[in-house]
Amino acid sequence: MYKLLVAALALSLCAACNTVKNAATLPFEAAAASPEHEWLRQLVGEWRVTSEASMGADQPPMKIESTESVRAIGALWVLSEGSARMDGQPFTSLLTLGYDPAQGCFVGTWVDTLQTHLWSYRGTLDRERNTLTLEARGPGFDDPAQSALYRDVIEVVDRDHKRLTSSVQGPDGGWTEFLRAESTRVK
Predict the structure, then answer these.
(1) Torsions phi, psi of 123, nearest 5?
(2) For residues 159 and 46, what is the distance between their CA atoms, to the nearest angstrom?
(3) What value, to the nearest 5°, has the Cα angle with vertex 58 and ends 55 and 60?
């Protein structure tokens, strides 16, 4: 009796799965990858990163060694996970990047283990297709209650090297670089 019950249950599950599989159609057409999406795919890989961050005018820069693992999410997105130790503490970051044809710009997000702010990026690619400039609003360095505009620039130097610079816009409209990172492809 037990074997008959298990067999009936297995047949029911197979029939249900087959019905769902055959009936599953999307209520919309899946997005096609654009040249901008293809540009993002060159970021996919394992990277070794050497960074230098400005900690303030009266302090020496902080040197940071880290790794970055970038993978594709289908043909439309990339997901980057960064890992480092800062002041002896583990640091993890997640960056998503894609391109939204409806907005006509690159879009993305950033979260990390040191802050509660969800950064939302909008960006553009330069004419030579080497440099992606992303901008986001977030808490100001001097006063976290005030919003500031930040700029991250990802430059693809060649297949195995990329550079990131991060800057904040001051009240005078000028930009101050506070981070520079050089990345080398490991694989």
Answers:
(1) -160, 175
(2) 12
(3) 55
Percent of the chain whose pLDDT exceeds 70: 87
Per-residue exposure over 74-104, b if at least 16 CB sit within 10 Å of its own CB, e if not: eebbbbbebebeeeeeeeebebebbbeeeee
Which ranges of the chain would DSSP assign to H, the alpha helix? 2-23, 35-41
Inter-residue contact 122 to 150 (CB < 8 Å): no
- Reported CATH class of domain 35-185: mainly beta
- What DSSP character marks residue 185? E
**Are the beta carbons of 69 and 183 closer than 8 angstroms?**
no
> With 60 as the cut, is the pLDDT of residue 16 above it?
no
Q: Where are the domains of the chain?
A: 35-185
d(CA 66, CA 80): 13
141: pLDDT strictly greater than 70: yes
Residue 1 has pLDDT above 50, yes or no: no
For residue 106, give both structure tokens.
């690159």
pLDDT tens for residues 156-182?
999 999 999 999 999 999 999 999 999
